[in-house]
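Bench log, entry 3. Co-assembly request; chain sequences pasted below exactly as received.
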Amino acid sequence: MNESPTIEDVRIAASRLSAKAHRTPVLDCRSVDAWVGAKVHFKCENFQKGGAFKFRGALNAILGLDRQALARGVVTHSSGNHGAAVALAAGMARTDAKVVMPANANRAKRAAVQAYGAKVIECAPTQAAREEAIARMVEDEGRIVVHPYDDAKVVAGQATATLEFMEQVPNLDRLVAPVGGGGLLAGTALAASIASPRISVWGAEPEQADDAARSFAAGRRIVDPSASVSTVADGLRAGIGEIPFSIIHDRVDEIVTVSEAAIIEAMRFLWERMKIVVEPSSAVALAALSARRDDLRGRCIGVILSGGNVDLDALPWSPSAPSMS
Amino acid sequence: MNESPTIEDVRIAASRLSAKAHRTPVLDCRSVDAWVGAKVHFKCENFQKGGAFKFRGALNAILGLDRQALARGVVTHSSGNHGAAVALAAGMARTDAKVVMPANANRAKRAAVQAYGAKVIECAPTQAAREEAIARMVEDEGRIVVHPYDDAKVVAGQATATLEFMEQVPNLDRLVAPVGGGGLLAGTALAASIASPRISVWGAEPEQADDAARSFAAGRRIVDPSASVSTVADGLRAGIGEIPFSIIHDRVDEIVTVSEAAIIEAMRFLWERMKIVVEPSSAVALAALSARRDDLRGRCIGVILSGGNVDLDALPWSPSAPSMS
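Structure output for the full assembly:
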């Protein structure tokens, strides 16, 4: 079984990715500082290859495979950014990738996976169908599974964003990252623990998908596959993974939950004031700052903007956007 | 009468603005390079204060005023980015600003001017009404007019974006900037002429507002106030100014015109692939590259992204966008 990554794993990941992933820029904005009442720096993983931080973890996992494994290829399931990241990373590592997607997946995301050179395998939109499809490709083709978050190398890869961030802004005293499956938040906390004195770390999660916050409060991972999850932050709908939870439980200070309206407000603020395209999942972290501004006066805060892959024809503030319950 | 700015004026502007305007970042993107077939760098003036390059010219003009003039205040006319830039710059220079706007101006833009601390003076939506309102404030209140482009200090201020750009990317061999009133393009060409060997400079203009291209081809400034100008690139609807035209005539190599569809396609490409919010006027420059890719192989091109102020409720690709004739 896959164990938790160590700080040494994070350093190895950083060295593997150094010439292959973008060292994304850090931006800041006075309007945001005024809104939050603190100094806020943004690590722009929306500018990362594939449009999200996911490329870091996928590439680190794939570059960590031996020659035999690379010859057999990789497989993953994802209807979002991780599928595109695996496709892109596999192409760079010259290995073959298959991405299992539900038949009703977003056509633009499906097209992105194919454009990066991976094969899309359709399955019925159920967890059982997905797992069966992956198991078949592992058994028949010997493919290696690149899990979106419950994988030590993936978490170590995501941690490299924070390693860079702390070099770019050495005086950060708080880091905030969104949490879905937990790979990014666990990586953030792991990388932050390298710094001394310790930086405090917050997770940010939609109220409508708050299994990480509930798990954190309970001190044990709560898995509830039947829970209704209907947040606009489509990147944060996954339940928290085992490896991420163990790191988050030990190293994260708090998980702040935010409403759907607050997510959309923060997203629009980032677009209008900072002139950057971020997806709703990224805005969750800024929404958490806004909700907790009384605790932040005078702080120097780092926010990881997780990605920028949005459907420009269905923005959440447009009249034609799907309604959120 | 106002004369053309010199290279020395540009250096003075750079020194005036150095601590007060953002040194905006330069971004690039492999998808753009692949699309255009050349290496393209983008100077992100959409990240400038006020969301557009206009702040540079406005601030340089206002900081160039003597104490007496500052005590009397400034006035300008603008229904767009220049009005907000003058409001913002006047606040920084602790002088009073009035901005004449047509009664039917966009409410968001009006609110931005007011939020930056300037007073909005309403007039009827005709050129005569606007000129009359400004003349009255010059006569009655002794205010100084800060023209959006037909002003040597404004042009010198806009030129500072290119000075920075050439420092950030020393090997540029072509610069492309959009042209409306001509302040940005003239400033770009003036700053480029400081470099040696000379960088070639292109203007980019909508076909639907092509007075600069026609003037350039004719070798004389063509002013046609009755011409119908209905481009999505709302920042480029002004006719070309006298001072800008004299510089553009002498120092620009070519003005490329592009269709409305090409502008919208380029704008969407920048949002989707680069994850940045740019206004249609900025996309005109990328559309020009795309139209002329056969002439660009192997080049190292610099594009000035002029601004990022858009109405997120009326994007040009949305079904509710106003139609363009």
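The longest helix of chain B spans residues 152-168. Chain B has two domains: 7-52+151-305, 55-145.
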